[in-house]
Write a structure and sequence with these properties.
With about 325 residues, this protein is of the alpha/beta class. The chain is built from nine helices and 13 strands. It starts with 7 loop residues before the first helix and ends with a strand.
């Protein structure tokens, strides 16, 4: 079966042996080959036998494919370090020209609070912001959640339409400023996780990317996606789902500093807080902030147990990268 006399089935087997690592079990590789080439083989057991044949594991060394073994034989002198599968960190710095930016998050449409959102938007308009940063969890994706769901809650198509309506409303309120949407947040990730588990064949097709189903291009909203770090001047911006995996503690801002060890602003925990500390060696000051949410306060999972508050922030920046954070609460329909 060696050389030019190799059958089509043998060629398929050898193609896969060259493509996949030698340590992959024969049974696993046979299942993969059969799934993708079932018309060439009787069953998986036939494939497994052929794999063992070409790997020289049938006990008869004469039956092994010498060409294959000569081609892939390795000795200690030609081993090389394999490339890492980990990509380098990607940092996105917001444009230097942005001076005053509205900062909102955790609307969780369709469980948002229309009154709080309008109060927030009115305040930001009066402040004369030149940009708006939506720091994730603008949507909820309730029906795509892994948590137990109430079947009486509206269908996904209605939730989806509500999200589009909100994005259009945001652009209507702020028609002339640049708007950014941080898609690397846990509620937006529900869609990505659903696609990976339920429809992996559609991954990578532009039509089904989250920024495309949200029609961000039509709304002229700039997506931020697959980014490790975001910076507003010298201020790092974090959504917070990875930072607060083990909870946000009594003071979320203090917990944030304990995790990142530098100044930063985050959302996700739905609580307005601030923490300041000092480097005792050279006196450098660090401050961390967390912002409130814009959900309706009567969301089912928030009843009776949460310490959440509604809020948002205004971030100001100088050309040098120095910044100021104005962290706002909404209490009794007033901004504090």
């Amino acid at each position: 079966m060696g050389g030019s006399n190799r059958t089509m089935s043998g060629q398929i087997i050898n193609d896969y042996l060259g493509k996949y690592p030698s340590w992959m079990p024969s049974h696993t590789l046979a299942s993969l080959i059969y799934k993708e080439n079932s018309n060439h083989f009787e069953d998986k057991e036939q494939i497994r036998s052929l794999i063992r044949y070409y790997r020289g594991k049938l006990g008869n060394t004469k039956s092994s494919d010498k060409d294959f073994h000569d081609e892939y034989k390795r000795t200690s002198v030609n081993f090389v370090q394999p490339p890492s599968w980990v990509e380098e960190k990607v940092v996105f710095s917001l444009p230097i020209g942005i001076k005053k930016m509205g900062f909102i998050s955790d609307l969780q449409v369709p469980f948002h609070d229309p009154t709080a959102i309008d109060i927030c938007f009115e305040y930001l308009t009066k402040e004369g912001i030149d940009s708006l940063f939506m720091n994730g969890d603008v949507c909820d994706f309730y029906q795509l959640s892994d948590f137990q769901k109430d079947p009486r809650v509206r269908k996904f198509d209605e939730e989806y339409e509500a999200i589009l309506e909100m994005l259009g409303y945001i652009r209507k309120v702020f028609p002339d400023i640049v708007i950014y949407y941080n898609l690397d947040a846990n509620h937006e990730a529900r869609y990505q996780r659903y696609m990976r588990t339920k429809a992996p064949e559609l991954l990578g097709i532009d039509l089904f990317e989250i920024e495309d189903i949200f029609r961000l291009n039509a709304f002229n909203i700039k997506p931020i996606k697959d980014i490790d770090h975001i910076k507003f001047g010298h201020l790092p911006i974090i959504h917070g789902d990875t930072t607060f995996k083990r909870g946000s503690g009594v003071s979320p801002a203090k917990t944030l500093f304990d995790r990142v060890k530098q100044s930063a602003i985050a959302s996700h925990c739905h609580r307005t807080s601030e923490f300041t500390t000092k480097n005792q060696f050279d006196g450098e000051i660090f401050t961390t902030w967390t912002t409130g949410h814009l959900m309706h306060p009567n969301v089912e999972y928030c009843k009776h147990v949460d310490q959440y508050n509604q809020g948002f922030a205004v971030l100001e920046k100088e050309t040098s990268g120095e910044y100021r954070v104005h962290n706002k609460r909404i209490i009794n329909n007033k901004v504090f």
